[in-house]
């Protein structure tokens, strides 16, 4: 099979993504475990930053290695995810002004996870067009 | 845009994967090109033309240019 045809977004992509998710979970646990004001609590919150940097470099390298159609699919997915996420953030912001929204349910730590979901939905949508 | 990619590939008995390898693109791209769902960039169109040893307009037809024979007779 063609190397490009079978190439994932990046060779180390799953590893960097898994490491990022593990450090995110560790950060959530660290924040629960360490008392407020503790430097370890702050360190826990910043724990996923470095693995995310690796994940980011991996993603960019992977996209650069793709062929032109696959890049177009990613571009369409990103445009879709970016704009829908913008709509969600804007609507939540306006609703926040209009009514009392539960801060626990709509905190940044929950809303950010919507972005990769929208991105993958956008990928699925764009892939379907070229199938 | 219409193209003769499938016809030219099948003449050479290449699979989509083989053609993808020769052009250094994914099999999905070959499929999208053959079904007319995607038009290649100019560099890829040149690579395709070079691989088959033909001019780009022999492989790709945007439906606007007059047939080659017509153009040749017009030049005379």
What layout of secondary structure does this protein have?
The complex is a heterodimer of chains A (131) and B (76).
Chain A: H1 3-6, H2 13-33, H3 39-46, H4 49-64, H5 68-98, H6 108-111, H7 114-129
Helix pairs in contact in A: 2-3, 2-4, 5-7
Chain B: E1 2-3, H1 5-11, H2 16-23, H3 27-34, H4 42-52, H5 56-59, E2 60-61, H6 68-75
Helix pairs in contact in B: 2-3
Which protein chains are joined by the largest interface, and how many residues does each one contribute?
A-B, 16 and 16 residues
Largest sheet of chain B: 2 strands, antiparallel
| Series of secondary-structure elements of chain A, N-terminal to C-terminal | HHHHHHH
Helix content of chain A: over 70%
Which shape of chain A, going by the Cα principal axes?
flat
Low-confidence stretches of chain B: none
C-alpha Rg of chain B (nearest Å): 13 Å
pLDDT averaged residue by residue of chain A: 87
Would you count the extended β strands of chain B for me?
2
Largest sheet of chain A: none
Shape of chain B: globular
- Describe the strand arrangement of the main beta sheet of chain B, using strand numbers: 1-2
Termini Cα gap of chain B: 29 Å
């Amino acid at each position: 099979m063609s190397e490009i045809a079978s190439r994932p977004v990046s060779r180390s992509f799953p590893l960097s993504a898994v490491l990022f998710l593990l450090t995110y979970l560790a950060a959530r646990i660290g924040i629960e475990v360490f008392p407020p004001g503790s430097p370890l609590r702050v360190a826990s919150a910043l724990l996923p930053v470095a693995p995310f940097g690796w994940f980011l470099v991996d993603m960019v390298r992977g996209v650069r290695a793709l062929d032109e159609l696959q890049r177009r699919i990613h571009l369409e997915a990103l445009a879709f995810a970016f704009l829908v996420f913008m709509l969600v953030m804007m609507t939540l912001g306006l609703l926040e002004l209009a009514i009392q929204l539960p801060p626990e349910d709509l905190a940044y730590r929950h809303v950010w996870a919507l972005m990769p979901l929208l991105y993958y939905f956008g990928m699925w949508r764009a892939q379907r067009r070229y199938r | 845009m219409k193209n003769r990619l499938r016809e030219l590939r099948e003449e050479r008995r290449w699979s989509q994967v083989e053609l993808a390898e020769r052009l250094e693109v994914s099999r999905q791209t070959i499929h999208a090109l053959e079904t007319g769902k995607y038009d290649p960039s100019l560099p890829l169109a040149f690579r395709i033309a070079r691989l088959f040893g033909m001019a780009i307009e022999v492989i790709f037809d945007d439906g606007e240019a007059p047939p080659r024979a017509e153009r040749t007779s017009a030049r005379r």
